[in-house]
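Table S5 (text form). Sequence records supplied for joint modeling of the two-component complex.
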Amino acid sequence: MSLKPDILAPVAGREPPFPYGLGAAGVHELAEAGFGDFPALTGLALAAVRDTGRTGGLVWIRQAALAREHGRLSGRGLAGFGIDPGRMLLIEAKGRMEALQAAEEACRASGLAAVIAELDDMDFTASRRLGLACETSRTPLVLVFPHTRSGATTAQGRWRVSARPSAPHEHDARAPGRPAWRAILEKSRLQPGKAGRIFDLEYEDATPCLRLVSRLAARPAAPQPRRIGAGLAGVWRDTG
Amino acid sequence: MPVSGATPDDQAGDTPFVLTEAGRNGLRVVAANDAARSAGVEPGLRFGDARTRAPELAAEPVDRAADARALEKLALWMECWSPAVAVAGGDSILIDMTGGAHLFGGEDAMLDHMEARLKRAGLPVRLGLAPTPGAAWALAHEVSGGRAGRRVDEAGLKPGLAGLPMAGLRLSDASLTLLRRFGLTRIGQLYGIDRKALARRFHSVSAADAVLTRLDQALGLRPEPLDPLRAPPDHAVRLPCPEPLLHPDGIRAGLARLAPALCERLEAHGEGARRFRLAIFRSDQSVAAVTAGAARPIHDPAHLLTLFRDRLDGLDPGFGVELMELEAARTGPVTPQARPLDAVLAGDGPDTAGLAVLADRITARLGDRVVKILQPVESHLPERGEALAVYDGELPDWQSATPPGPAPRPLRLFERPESLEVIAEIPDGPPMRFVWRRIVHRVLRADGPERIAPEWWRAGASGPGGRRARDYYRVEDEEGRRYWIFREGLYGDGRGGPPAWFIHGLFA
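The corresponding structure-token record, covering 748 residues in total, follows.
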């Protein structure tokens, strides 16, 4: 089998900005930093997919065991997150094999905004298969893994995501503020030099978008983080 | 024009053999083979008497449930002659052959074909063909019936039935005994009798009615609709195999020929179908079938073949496939849709046709009912406010769904709320710390409460939150994880003991 260079090697001059193609093209992995960070992964995956602005259907594949552990997607929660639940298909796979089969079928289809799959683990062969399936249809695939995920992969990148204490609410200091996450770029094919970097992210509800905040803001006592950057591409900005 | 076939109560072989059943007065014979009959053993005889008449008699207890299963299996296989097949009584099968006899070269040829086919399978049968189910039943159950008497037509119905025994009318034993006491043993003897006079002889009106109803049904004066085992399909195409197919590839090839034929027929009617069934009739009188479903009505042969792609492995050709049948059900109009070449040009909204095709492909691989959608429901209770419904080609409309209010909803929801142990600062306030799944979480920030009242107008509102109001809080622990927890009830609300705490969802 000849490996095509364009998905495995970074291409000079075509470097996508942060988050390096997450949710926009190719296969990306999100993994929990510790048990209990699954909602943070869900939020980051959905925010990344939504921020690409791709229209079309969304396919969410879930494995039964993970759904029991971490609950299922809520339609009203999605609506509050700026995603129309009416364009989403939920696929209930019993085991890992079924989830992988469904993910492969979904990746082959064109015209989808994105495919998001919750898996408990995956081997190298499976990741290669999914990569090839995505390559032909150009459907982005986001894989969501529990904290046990490790090992080799052909995905474009792997992020370790954890929840982060939010900044205080604007109107009520005792209430939780906007969702905040810490994402660590563990592996990256497109930006190998950036591997290991830490990004502190905050979700903005008023105009749904993600933004990167200074790492200083991670502390609860920190002042309200300033919005950095403007314009279309400025929604994501690397300051870390 | 029903055909009635009585299945064998006689077994091949020379040793007398009977089936017995325990009754009130000991064992009785319920069925006997030819050898036993020739020795004078008839059904209804006591087993002890039968033993005296045929000392070397072999016997086994009857298993009526297994008999009924076997008869139903045989009846399903008989669908290779007609789609309307019904099981009648414990030993008979009724087939509606109306308008179908010419396909087998006429009525006589058809009966010969059926008889030969079943004889070859080791199933001795008696066949009767008549314009009414009752008459066909009577013909088939005439014990001494020869070849000449097995078929009557419209004109010969009345004279043809006249000589048959009264038992052919499907009457109860009590009625038969009573009629025999009057000297009425042949069906023809009832023709000229005064009906009111006959009714007076019976103990009850219903018993007399039953006799006359059966007579009228046999003569075609009252309708007797057949109750088929399976509803006849909306559309079906068949492929008889000149030689029995032995290899699964043969089934695949057969399906590839059936699919375009069925789709052509569907298209001619201007409709598509959502449910397909492929049945193979095997040479050992058994049928195997697989079904496949589509999310929306289709009449595209290639799409139809994808639905069956992974399911044909479950079909075992056994000793050979003689006939294949592809049926279509749940028909509906096909909505043709012109889509732009590129999904980006399609503008807002997902490509519903493309999603339906994808859903079908996944359903074909993973099984039915795995592709779901979130359906909004008008209810304030979070667990009732949306339903996971099976995707059937229609995407839900969330734009017109009532928003729950300004309070945020969690991204992940538990199907049923999980119990918590909580320490709260004040009885009606948010918790200070809580234990969930044996891990202590210290609450740093909390927002709430949002009160959701129980739906008292719904009968059967039970479980957590069935009768008590809930106060929902959005809390964040020291690690920054955000939870949606609620207290069910209040202190002193008079609806049970102290309030209980639950976790219902997880915020991103």
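Note: Residues 5-11 of chain B have pLDDT under 50 and may be disordered.
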